[in-house]
Automatic annotation (TrEMBL), chain A:
Claim: Transmembrane helix is one of the keywords in the record: yes
GO process annotations (BP): amino acid transport
PANTHER family in the cross-refs: INNER MEMBRANE AMINO-ACID ABC TRANSPORTER PERMEASE PROTEIN YHDY, MEMBRANE COMPONENT OF AMINO ACID ABC TRANSPORTER
Species classification: unclassified sequences, metagenomes, ecological metagenomes
Transmembrane segments: 35-57, 95-115, 122-140, 160-182, 233-249, 270-288, 326-349
The protein's name in its UniProt record: ABC transmembrane type-1 domain-containing protein
Native source species: marine sediment metagenome
GO cellular component, one term: ATP-binding cassette (ABC) transporter complex
Compartments reported by the entry: Cell membrane
Keywords: Cell membrane, Membrane, Transmembrane, Transmembrane helix, Transport
GO molecular function: transmembrane transporter activity
InterPro entries for the chain: AA_ABC_transptr_permease_3TM (IPR010065), ArtM/GltK/GlnP/TcyL/YhdX-like (IPR043429), MetI-like (IPR000515), MetI-like_sf (IPR035906)
Automatic annotation (TrEMBL), chain B:
UniProt name for this protein: Solute-binding protein family 3/N-terminal domain-containing protein
Entry keyword Signal: yes
One BP annotation, GO: amino acid transport
Gene3D superfamilies: Periplasmic binding protein-like II (3.40.190.10)
Swiss-Prot/TrEMBL keywords: Signal, Transport
InterPro entries: Bact_solute-bind_prot3, SBP_3_CS, Solute-binding_3/MltF_N
PROSITE patterns tied to this protein: SBP_BACTERIAL_3
Organism from which the protein derives: marine sediment metagenome
Limits of the Solute-binding protein family 3/N-terminal domain: 37-266
Length: 365, 342
């Protein structure tokens, strides 16, 4: 009996596999793309080698003063010498452990929230959200229970940036959700109130808000009543960002089919349980990219507090460059600031992608 | 509309009341003594005038004024809390009572003195617009700058002063405007412009940023008047006097040869009646100012006399190496002059 044996598959033609084929397919698929590729390569050649030689090869890494920066490239000695100030601002150096502890507690406290098997996670989460801010305030500001007071005017650097961003996010998210619900409410008074609030805050630039809070507000307050400058800025940031969060969340609410609302009502759920158990979990999941987008923008916007004389990371760096001992180090400073901001923003965006994948149930195509 | 108007009226009244309620004589001094420190508004970063070192201590010529006031009041120059202020918020911070004294390289002008409800307590630095050029150009005076390309830092009066000066001297120039001092320094270095103009105090800081500072020179001409000094709220004369005389004490101390190292000795025994009166060993001149009798001793001991402060922060002893020029004592060819204590 004769059996038919298939001939082994012919290998694909040389020109459709391997690196050459990939290059032909992706980079040189036509004369126009070839030109663009060559142009891009030229740009890379123009920019990258000088950058690397400035930042690494010709850079000065060790030393204590400006005089140690002898080579052509970057003077990272400046960053190294002022690192403490960039991280903590004018926070007294012997008390900086309090800032470290605050950050460590935040990380340690948040870990259980990321463990899927953790029982009573919701209850723990709420408890954490209530207890941690008090603890953080006590640690950072002090003034009671045996800790020395460190006034907010001494806060600065990355610490201040994180405080503004964290408080802004923690305050704006719940307020934004409430505003979004209010805007879709059937009660006219609440709806009008929420619409007015959102449209007002979306209509003014953040700089104006900060400026008003710092320059105008003190004139209207009675004598002797001086709100802390940081508190004023924080309130401004929260109110401003909550309007943006509200609009993002509203987008999610509108994407939920009407049937979901009706089904929830038919189950006998009241308004709050319908929202809390059926609508919001679905809506918020949909708008994760939008919300994270808002928060990344908020994180970067924190550097606007420079105009009201708060010393966040960027302003600390700017201030350090005015020390006569380190004049002319602005480039190094700003590159460092950019790097730190990029690390945080990139981290947030990666986390949001992870969150999306984890929560992506029932909408997979 | 009517409601908006009346609301505005209420706000304005509140603002005016809020401001005027501070203008009672003695209110500031009482408040400062009660809280135990001077709240001082300084710049958010100006080389030599107010900046922070790597330990976070504020220093500079403007900061020294705050320290002098604290030394005079409390005998302790460290009893100061600093509020770094941007140029825009500085006057509001003073008017609203957020700071007790504003020592932030603020130019004394008629509109600020009279229009804003403020009082300038003196001049701690006579500044003025000047020119920074490369020595290679061989220019020794601004009159040689005909046809030059001039780098300007965007500022309201810098460009105006420049064109006034060049027009008055019948010279031509091409301006290039930059937003930040770093950009304009780079531009001078690369040769895009022949000369950089800004306030003289800034030019010395700019010079350090250049690759080879020694190849550049600040021309002697000063083409505008920028007297910088500490500011207080109008209407509180007692406080005004304290700030003003703290500054005068520093200038007088330099004139009388009192320094931080010999002040102790001179306060105990001196043959010079002027020194004795200033240092409180003769007469009760501190009392008139509602200050302790050794107020001037404390200022000189902890902050130094005006010359020492100048040297340390902006002068020969600092990185900036600004010459005394207009800020030399009056008997030394400058403008720093203080009325006598007697």
């Amino acid at each position: 009996m004769q059996t038919h044996t298939f001939k082994p598959d012919m290998p694909p033609p040389n020109q459709s596999i391997g690196a050459v084929a990939w290059l032909r397919g992706n980079l040189f698929s036509g004369w126009f793309n070839s030109l663009l590729t060559l142009f891009a390569l030229y740009l890379v050649w123009l920019i990258v080698p000088p950058l690397i030689s400035w930042a690494f090869i010709n850079a000065d890494w060790v030393g204590t003063t400006r005089a140690d920066c002898t080579s052509e490239g970057a003077c990272w000695v400046f960053i190294q010498q002022r690192f403490g100030q960039f991280m903590y601002g004018f926070y007294p150096s012997e008390l900086r452990w309090r800032v470290d502890l605050t950050v460590i507690l935040a990380i340690v406290g948040a870990v259980p929230l990321f463990i899927d098997a953790m029982p009573r996670k919701a209850r723990y989460g709420i408890g954490f959200l209530v207890v941690y801010p008090l603890l953080a305030y006590w640690l950072l500001h002090g003034g009671f229970l045996g800790l020395e007071t460190v006034e907010t005017s001494q806060w600065g650097g990355l610490t201040l940036t994180l405080v503004i961003a964290a408080v802004g996010i923690a305050g704006a998210l719940p307020l934004g959700i409430m505003l979004a619900l209010g805007r879709r409410s059937e009660m006219p008074a609440i709806r009008v109130l929420c619409v007015t609030f959102i449209e007002f805050w979306r209509g003014v630039p953040l700089i104006t808000v900060l400026f008003m809070s710092s320059v105008m507000l003190p004139l209207f307050l009675p004598e002797g009543m001086n709100f802390d400058k940081l508190v004023r800025a924080l309130i401004g940031v929260i109110l401003f960002q909550s309007a943006y969060v509200a609009e993002v969340v509203r987008g999610g609410l509108q994407a939920i089919p009407k049937g979901q609302y009706e089904a929830a009502s038919a189950m006998g759920l009241g308004y709050w349980r319908m929202m809390g158990l059926v609508i919001l979990p679905q809506a918020l999941k949909l708008v994760i990219p939008g919300i994270v987008n808002t928060f990344i923008a908020l994180f970067k916007d924190t550097s606007l507090v420079i105009i009201i004389g708060l010393f966040d990371l960027l302003n600390s760096i700017k201030q350090a460059t005015t020390d006569p001992a380190w004049l002319g180090m602005a480039t190094e400073g700003y590159v460092f600031a950019a790097l730190v901001f990029w690390i945080f923003c990139f981290g947030m965006s990666r986390y949001s992608m992870h969150l999306e994948r984890k929560l992506d149930t029932g909408h997979k195509r | 509309m009517k409601m908006a108007k009346s609301a505005l009226a209420v706000f304005t009244t509140a603002a005016v009341l809020g401001v005027s309620s501070f203008a009672q004589a003695g209110a500031t001094l009482d408040a400062v003594q009660k809280k135990g420190f001077v709240q001082c508004g300084i710049s958010d970063g100006l080389p030599g005038f107010s900046y922070a070192d790597d330990k976070g201590n504020y220093m500079g010529l403007d900061v020294d004024v705050c320290r002098a006031v604290a030394a005079a009041l409390f005998g302790d120059a460290t009893k100061v809390k600093y509020s770094p202020l941007t140029a825009k918020e500085r006057f509001t911070a003073l008017q609203s009572g957020e700071v007790d004294v504003l020592s932030r390289n603020t130019t004394w002008t008629s509109s600020r003195d009279a229009g804003l409800g403020l009082n300038f307590a003196g001049v701690n630095y006579y500044d003025g617009q000047g020119f920074l050029v490369n020595k290679k150009l061989g220019v020794t005076t601004a009159k040689d700058l005909d046809g030059a390309t001039v780098c300007i830092q965007a500022g309201t009066t810098t460009e105006l002063n420049l064109s006034d000066y060049f027009r008055a001297n019948n010279l031509k120039f091409t301006p290039i405007t930059y937003d930040t001092s770093d950009e304009s320094a780079k531009s001078l270095e690369s040769g895009r412009c022949d000369v950089l103009t800004s306030d003289q105090s800034q030019l010395y800081a700019q010079r350090i940023k250049l690759g080879a500072p020694d190849e550049y020179v600040v021309l002697p001409e000063v083409i505008s008047k920028e007297p910088l000094g500490p500011v207080v709220r109008q209407g509180d004369d007692e406080w005004f006097n304290i700030v003003r005389w703290s500054l005068f004490a520093m200038v007088n101390a330099e004139e009388l040869g009192i320094t931080s190292s010999n002040v102790e000795e001179k306060s105990k025994s001196t043959g010079n009646p002027d020194v004795a009166r200033l240092l409180g060993s003769e007469g009760q001149y501190g009392n008139d100012l509602k200050l302790p009798p050794d107020w001037a001793v404390q200022i000189v001991k902890q902050v130094g006399n005006y010359g020492e402060s100048f040297d340390r922060n902006v002068g020969a002893g600092s990185e900036l190496k600004i010459e005394r020029g207009l800020n030399a004592l009056w008997n030394n060819g400058g403008l720093q002059y203080a009325p006598p204590v007697r």
